[in-house]
């Protein structure tokens, strides 16, 4: 299985261990770097994981890093704190990512927060924090170290534009608002959460505004990126379209 542990202490001294794929006999080696950007609810996570599995690549959910910081900020009652205090918190936080067969789990200071960071309040705060230069600078080094050997599917909102402009393949996944809200609603209901559809739509639109209008690294289509509208497509169809593009290399 693929197993990767990333441990960082936000000045972010790196500790990455990669092992070959013992189940399939596939040894991790330098491969392609593929980015998938897009708004909330466009299907990025599901599609990125499946594409990583198809290619036997590692999966990097960069949003989980911002969510992990948002979780710590919330837990410590620092939501209203200024950027300097939050940057200081980053300097003391320990974030670990475990990837097993393309499934990523997130640990903050030893606590498994994988499910806890998927709430709407955390999502909104993560979007706000992602506009802070100090937070972005801290997490940027993690993301770039993660992909140094290639063979990675990097999912986020500015992967192809800012973090990995050198990526061999860039995709931008979109879907209409109604479909994105429906997907997010079903995802939360399946987790057993009590969700108000109207509030969820309001939150998603707020995230869209924050992501698209922020001064630093706004959500936009990267130069050379292939745009895929997933509104009418299922997961397999989107992944197959991406594989067809990669196969032409």
Describe the structure.
The chain is α/β, with parallel strands linked by helices. It has one domain (3-247): P-loop containing nucleotide triphosphate hydrolases (Rossmann fold, 3-Layer(aba) Sandwich). Helix content is 44%, strand content 19%. The protein is built from nine helices and ten strands. The protein has helices at 44-55, 62-75, 83-92, 120-129, 133-146, 159-163, 177-190, 197-213, 235-247, and strands spanning 3-8, 16-18, 33-37, 58-61, 95-100, 103-108, 111-112, 152-156, 169-174, 226-229. The strands form two sheets. Strands 2-1-5-6-7 form a five-stranded antiparallel beta sheet, with helices on one face. Strand 1 (3-8) and strand 2 form a beta hairpin. The longest helix is centred in the C-terminal third of the chain and has 17 residues, at 197-213. It is globular. 39% of the residues are buried.
Number of separate structural domains: 1
Question: What about the largest sheet?
Answer: 5 strands, antiparallel
The name CATH uses for the topology is: Rossmann fold
Strand order of the largest sheet: 2-1-5-6-7
* Gap between N and C termini: 26 Å
Could you say what the CATH architecture is? 3-Layer(aba) Sandwich
List the secondary-structure elements in sequence, H or E: EEEHEHHEEEHHEHEHHEH
Mean pLDDT figure: 83
Give the strand tally: 10
**Radius of gyration using CA atoms only:** 17 Å
Tell me what portion of residues adopts beta-strand conformation. 15-25%
Q: Give the helix/strand class.
A: alpha/beta
Count of alpha/pi helices: 9
Q: Approximately how much helix is present in the residues?
A: 40-55%
């Amino acid at each position: 299985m693929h197993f990767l542990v990333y441990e960082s202490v936000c000045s972010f001294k790196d500790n990455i261990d990669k092992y070959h794929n013992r189940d399939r006999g596939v040894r991790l080696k330098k491969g392609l770097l593929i980015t998938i950007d897009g708004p909330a609810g466009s299907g990025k996570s599901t599609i990125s994981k499946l594409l990583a599995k198809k290619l036997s690549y590692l999966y990097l959910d960069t949003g989980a890093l911002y969510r992990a910081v948002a979780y710590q900020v919330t837990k410590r009652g620092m939501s209203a704190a200024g950027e300097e205090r939050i940057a200081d918190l980053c300097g003391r936080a320990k974030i670990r990512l475990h990837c097993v067969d393309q499934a990523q789990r997130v640990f903050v200071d030893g606590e498994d927060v994988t499910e806890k960071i998927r709430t709407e309040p955390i999502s909104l705060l993560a979007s706000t924090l992602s506009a802070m230069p100090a937070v972005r600078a801290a997490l940027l080094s993690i993301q770039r170290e993660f992909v140094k050997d290639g063979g990675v599917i990097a999912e986020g909102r500015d992967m192809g534009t800012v973090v990995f402009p050198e990526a061999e393949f860039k995709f931008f996944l979109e879907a209409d608002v109604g479909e994105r809200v429906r997907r997010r609603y079903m995802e939360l209901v399946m987790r057993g959460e009590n969700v108000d559809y109207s509030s969820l739509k309001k939150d998603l639109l707020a995230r869209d505004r924050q992501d698209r209008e922020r001064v630093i690294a706004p959500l936009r289509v990267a130069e050379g990126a292939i745009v895929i509208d997933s509104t009418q497509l299922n997961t397999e169809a989107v992944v197959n379209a991406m594989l067809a593009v990669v196969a032409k290399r």
